[in-house]
Amino acid sequence: MYREAPTDKSDWWELYEPFEETLSDGSTILIPAGYVTDFASVPMLLWSIFPPIGKYNRAALVHDYLYDLQYKQKELGEKEARKFADDQFLFLANKINSKDAFRHFIMYLTVRIFGFYAWRATKE
Fold first, then answer.
1. Which of 12, 35, 66, 79 lies deepest, with the highest CB count within 10 Å?
2. Transmembrane residues, as ranges (predicted)?
3. Pairing assessment for the beta strands 13-15 and 19-22 based on DSSP bridges
4. What's the pLDDT score for residue 3?
């Protein structure tokens, strides 16, 4: 479904086929082939605890895509749209593996606290 992206960054990955996922509100999102992601943006210092690539890749992929689109920002406003995207990470990560719900919640909190940097960077 994905391969290492042809960029100068070795930690980026490219979708080689479209990916579809159902969100918590029942809507479906289609991520096109060619989309590039780093999955979870985790500082290298924390990789042993929270690896950037893992069981939650689908959740991180959808989260990155929603951020890049600034999905639902026109409808909900910036704060609520960003929260919706963050909530999708938690929803999908728990859907994939509910046994790691605490780990996912810690990751979710981190995204809630620091995600505005990535959200705002998308605007520029």
1. 66
2. 29-50
3. unpaired
4. 47
- Helices and strands per DSSP (H, E), number in the chain: 4, 5
Mean pLDDT, each 10-residue run in order, the chain (124 residues): 50 85 96 85 63 75 92 93 95 92 89 79 62
DSSP states along the chain: -EEE-SSS-TT-EEESS-EEEE-TTS-EEEEPTT-EE-SS---GGGTTTS-SSSTTHHHHHHHHHHHHHTTTHHHH-HHHHHHHHHHHHHHHHHHH-GGGHHHHHHHHHHHHHHHHHHHHHHH-
Find all residues with CB under 8 Å of 100, minimum gap 6, and list them. 55, 56, 93, 94
